[in-house]
Amino acid sequence: MAATTKSKKKPTKVDIISKYMDYVLEHEHTPKSVYKFVKQAKFEEKDFYKHFGNFDALREGIWEGFYENASNLMNNNEEVENYNSREKMLTFFYTFFEILTANRSYVLYVLEEHEDHLKNLKQLKGLRHNIKSFATQLIEDDNDEKNYSFLKRNEKIYSEGAWIQFLFLLKFWKEDKSADFEKTDVAIEKSVNTIFDVFDNTPLEKVFDFGKFLYKETMKS
Description:
This protein has about 220 residues and is mostly helical. The chain is about 70% helix and about 0% strand. It has helices at about 15-25, 35-40, 45-50, 55-75, 85-100, 105-110, 115-120, 125-145, 155-175, 180-200, 205-220.
């Protein structure tokens, strides 16, 4: 009986992302070409292009993967379904930054790779869309429960605010030197409560408290 040749397992999207992140951390630079990357990773170019058109798409895919992981963790928690929008936003940011912390070495490298700050943020394009969509859904759910139109929040403004809020938290987390990134957790709580308070037209004590917190932390840096 003739011997059968065992077919080589094709790399998944997650496999390729994992190999890419390892490559960047081990070499301290991004691959020069897809050819050189796949050769070291020991799979074929066609396997790479099955999932990504180029390295830019892969880099965006990594951040989108972080978002998907955070969303899945939230969706698998039955308690989250009963949370209000404020609690869901808090839970999302706590979860997302835990995932970033688990991948901190890679994240810090790619966010500081180029001197041009905007060039480093280009990879967040897909993530921006996802976070804005998430925020929009939260506001739509809240607006559906309001009987009067003047009580409803502007979904476009709020979703853009959520993205700006994320960028602030990302910068804060990058520079956070506290144990277990405790100050980032405080920043998440204060920033989420503040933005909801602003949109709810509640007293501005928390805005003032948040401003004092940011000023204090900025002066320390």
